[in-house]
Amino acid sequence: MRNNFSINIIRIVNNKIIKTLFIVLLIFAVYFQFNKINANDSVDLKIVNSLYFLIAFIFFIYTLLAHVLTWHILINSLGGKIRFRNSIYIYFISGLLRYLPGNYWYIFSRSAMGLNLGIDMSKNISGTSLEILLNLLMGISLSLVGVLWGIELEIKQLSWILVFFIVCSILLILLLVIGKKKINSSNSIALSKAVIFFHDICKLKNLPFWKVCFLLFLFLSIWIAQGFSLFFVLSAFIPLNFSFYPLVMFSYVISWVIGFINPITPNGLGIREALLMITLTPTISTSVALGASIIMRLLGLAGESILAFLGWISSRGTRQSKECENLDQKERLK
Fold first, then answer.
1. How many other C-beta atoms can be found within 10 angstroms of the C-beta atom of residue 39?
2. Rounded distance, CA 232 to CA 226, Å?
3. Domain locations in the chain?
4. Which among 162, 119, 223 has a CA at the least distance from the CA of 25?
5. Res 132: pLDDT
6. How much is the pLDDT for 13?
């Protein structure tokens, strides 16, 4: 039933009507913001301080390690047993599949790789779902803070897309609650599948309060660190005062949230870059904003690839040591 529910969710997201609606909303947002973008922007991309790229990469590496730590904690809290080095390997190898068409290959590949280490597929899917959900909820919360503070007019003008998503999320939650009460009725099969997923989310109640707080702190630190990463990438091209950091962080968070929920491109490819360019302009030149958004994508790919390679080497060394131990035990028994 869990697998059927996942398939139903994928069918809903890939629905042509939903895709068309999202494209219309995005085109309207770009058109609505077009008068805010300086069409005569002629600023050349010149690196002022290349050291800032290294600082940005260090911040990004922290966010990646914090992400895998949250997944590692959730999997072990749900009853799975996995070493952190193996978590790094599975998380980032599967994470690179986010860029394949379909958006969901990384979830299935992560579950399949977890099975090889003895992790139950349902626990793996639950842990992955909770990690995505908590990260998304923290991102939405920070996006709302950015919108309410009204740091820049550009963020306010894009807020209606975010509000639309939040309203849909509230309706979905209400649907799940209603479906929970009607789970025994014959005409609520689809709702009962949704309730199964809802029960997975409710497993957070079984975690110690301090652990939930620690997970939320990790996700908050992830968003703050990603904001610093983008801030230093921008600073590599133009000198920025630290007072611009809130604008940079909230712009990144909002573009990530909208890029994540978009059903058009895998991993928000192109969507996040366009939204970053819209929200940062005209405070920051269009060419610099677009260049920085592309560099952020490349930093993420580079960081994930490096950590995936290191995780593979570490897990391979662990397997070889275990094989040697097993051979030694067999020889002793002989």
1. 7
2. 10
3. 2-333
4. 162
5. 84
6. 44
